[in-house]
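Bench notes, afternoon.
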Amino acid sequence: MAFLRGSGEHSDRIIRRKLSDQVLDRLRDMIRKGELKPGDALPSERVLMERFQVGRPAIREALQSLNHAGLVSIMHGERTRVNVIDADTFFEQNNDIARLLLNVAPSTLQHLKEVRTMFELGIVRVAAERATEADIRDLRAAVDLQKARLGGDPLPFIDADMRFHVRIAAICANPIITATSQAMLRWLFEYHTALLHWSGNEQTTLAEHASIVDQIAAHAPDRAVEMMRAHLERSRNMIDNTT
């Protein structure tokens, strides 16, 4: 009888799951096992209804969940297709969360800047060790592009700044590192543009970028780290003093 009395507790409760959640699990499993590969079109709604023995609402709700998760793309008039899943997809799906954190939790911005500094110092060391002549040419071209965007609207200058730092990350030849660099800079640039631009100091930024490239070209990791640290600290101190 004691067992029967305890059977009503929440931990023993059997909960019926929504049909759409069960369909979602099945579709995820099909993607995970490779039955549905990136670029593949999903079966039609009718075929899925017959396969899973559920109604159209359950299928559509499951597809919408997959779409919101970035696993598939739903296009009007076309079949739903499986997306290419990579590091960029992961960070893209977290943009809304990053926006929320940066706006409602001020300490998050400070934490992000600290992480970015640690990240950039590690990246520039690897870049100075591995950079090829083609990498150096690209970095110098990135500095030239930023210089060409001086004056007027600050956004093109800031965009070129981001391209410069992402190009350094790309030297590591690690897609997760590159995607992480793009994501952190995007979060800072897109949601806190005012914190990343200060009128009248663009020439200093350009000179620092050029010096960083010189150290990477010389394959001098310690000096490259020193220059990057000075660049980021100078930028961070100036931002802190103007906010």
